[in-house]
Amino acid sequence: MMKFTPTDIPNVVLIEPQVYGDDRGFFMETWHAGKFAEAGLDLNFVQDNHSRSRRGTLRGLHYQLGRPQGKLARVIAGEVFDVAVDLRRHSPTFGRWVGMTLSAANKKMLWVPPGFAHGFYVLSDEADFLYKCTEFYAAEDERVLRWDDPELAIDWPLSPGSPPLLSAKDEAGTRWRDAEVYP
To answer: What pTM, to 2 d.p., does this model score?
Structure first.
C-alpha cells in the first residue's frame, strides 16, 4: 500500500511507498497511475528530471508562471530538505510554506502541485534528487522567489556558519512582495 498524507497545506501530499526488502536489497513502486488516481492525484507526467548537488546547495525557489508544473519529488541518494510555497492568490494557504526531509533512507516522496514555488537544500555530502513534472520546462515562464525572504520566513536547516551554495539565478530571486503569483 502507498500511503498518501496531506501536509499542513492539504494540496501538498507526502507519499510513502510500500517497500519490500530482504538481504538482497529492496523493491518499491514510485509511480502507479491507478493508485495515485485513487488518492485523488490523477496526474499526467511529461518530463523527468535528475539533479545531483553537494552539501549546502540550495536550489530554488522556482516556479513557472505561464505553464505551471506539478512535481513529484524524491531522493535516491543522500538527503534534502524539500520546500513548497503556495503562490495561488485565492488559496486559504496563500504565502504559506511546508518543508519535509526526503532521503534515500526514508524513501518518501512529495507531491508539489501546480501553483507552488519549489526548492530544496542538501543536507548530506551529496544528493541525487529526482522529480517528475506535469508540464515541460519553459525558460521564458520560469520565475525565482528569494529563498531567504523574511516575509516567508522559511526555516531552512542550514549548516551553522555556512551560507548556502546558490546559483546566480537563485541569488537574484524576487522578494515575496514583488513576486508574480497565480490567480
So the answer is: 0.95
- Rounded mean pLDDT of 106-135? 98
Point out the catalytic residue in the list 90, 118, 131, 182. 131
Residue with cell 520565475: 143
Reported as a pLDDT band with limits 50, 70 and 90, residue 92 is very high
Active site annotation includes 118: no
CATH of domain 3-178: 2.60.120.10
Locate all alpha helices (DSSP H) within the chain, ordered by sequence.
33-38, 168-171
Q: Any catalytic annotation for residue 62?
A: yes
Cβ count near 109 (within 10 Å): 24
3-state SS of 114-151 is CCEEEEEEECCCEEEEEEEECCCCCHHHEEEECCCCCC
